[in-house]
């Protein structure tokens, strides 16, 4: 079979235990950039990490990391 016959890959992220956590994000550190406030968040429940950019003004925060980073 050729590549064209291959079934489409699922874009769903594989489930794991961290997904079950209702993350409670605490700001671990933050610094100001020209784009806005860059915040390093850490879940107080499971220790996953996330980085988000909170632009100036009323714009919503933009996640920088595509997925939360699970604890080691
Ligand atoms: Zn969590």
UniProtKB/TrEMBL annotation:
UniProt-recorded name of the protein: Zinc-finger
Q: What is the lineage of its organism?
A: Bacteria, Bacillati, Actinomycetota, Actinomycetes, Micrococcales
């Amino acid at each position: 079979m050729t590549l064209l016959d291959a079934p489409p890959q699922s874009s769903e992220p594989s489930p794991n235990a961290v997904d079950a956590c209702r993350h409670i994000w605490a700001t671990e550190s933050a610094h100001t950039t020209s784009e806005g406030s860059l915040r390093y968040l850490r879940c107080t429940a499971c220790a996953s990490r996330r980085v988000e950019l909170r632009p100036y003004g009323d714009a919503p925060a933009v996640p920088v990391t595509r997925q939360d980073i699970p604890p080691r």
